[in-house]
Amino acid sequence: MTEQPFQIPASLVEILSNANSVVVLTGAGISAESGVPTFRDAQTGLWEKYQAEELATPGAFQRDPKLVWEWYEWRRGLISNSNPNPGHYAIVEMERRFPEFTLITQNVDGLHKQAGSGAYSPIIELHGNIFRNKCIDENIIINQWKDTGEIPPRCPYCGAYLRPDVVWFGEMLSQDSLEAAWQASQSCQVFLSVGTSNLVEPAASLPFMASRNGATVVEINPNTTPLTQTADFYLSGFSGVVLPKIVELLWGNDEIS
């Protein structure tokens, strides 16, 4: 395990230069650099008496759908004030450059897509996307509905409530997304773990899976995690600093918008 704070080892640059298949896993850290509050940050204002874990459950929605919907509207408003940072844009450039590239994110804020990710390969959003809504009964994405003033709004097809398309406590991740993440992690040559605590399963298992299958594992995080000792390279720093530096060393410094 090689630690190089804010410096990119030449050996890693060489590995990336010769890589065809690369996986990037992102967590709350990259979003925090854009000012997005982490899920468990203290609630404020009207929401300070609630714990996030008490609202992000199927049971909470069943008991008080209006309360849960309004909380998510509040969270959407917070996220809407944030913009992608240089780390997001560096990942876009990696997607454009590497022949086989997979972005797996635990974040629901949509900042990767806003930055331009997903143009060449789909983004695997393990925990969903807070700006999408789905029918709670039919589990289909709903983009438009008649605004009757009711909160939450109703599905235009069956009349059931709409809910955010995110994974709540007690729910299973999308099997399709999970299988795609497993397949990419098992077959990649380089796996970058970016801004994630590597504590939340099943995402936490992905870099270890990649390592067992022979991939070079790179951890980018200002803090050590359970992955640090296993990673081939630990780059101690923020993604908005480290990722653009990697892109600059690989392809020059005119690539990140």
User: Main β-sheet, in a few words?
Assistant: 7 strands, parallel
Q: Identify the overall geometry.
A: elongated
The CATH topology of the largest domain:
Rossmann fold
Can you say what the CATH homologous superfamily of the largest domain is?
A: TPP-binding domain
Instruction: Write down the secondary-structure element order.
Output: EHEHHHHHEHEEEHEHEEH
Based on CA atoms alone, the radius of gyration comes out at: 19 Å
- Overall CATH architecture of the largest domain: 3-Layer(aba) Sandwich
Q: Number of folding domains?
A: 2
Q: Compute the separation of the termini in Å.
A: 32 Å
Beta-strand proportion: 15-25%
**Annotation field: number of helices:** 10
What is the CATH C-level name of the largest domain? Alpha Beta
Task: Please provide a written account of the structure.
- There is one protein chain.
- The protein is of the alpha/beta class and 257 residues long.
- The chain has two domains: 2-35 and 84-127 and 174-251, Rossmann fold (3-Layer(aba) Sandwich), CATH 3.40.50.1220; 45-81 and 134-166, SIR2/SIRT2 'Small Domain' (2-Layer Sandwich).
- Helices cover 35% and strands 17% of the residues.
- The strands form two sheets. It has a seven-stranded parallel beta sheet, with helices on both faces. Strands 5-6 form a two-stranded antiparallel sheet.
- The longest helix has 16 residues, at 65-80.
- It starts with a strand and ends in a 6-residue tail after the last helix.
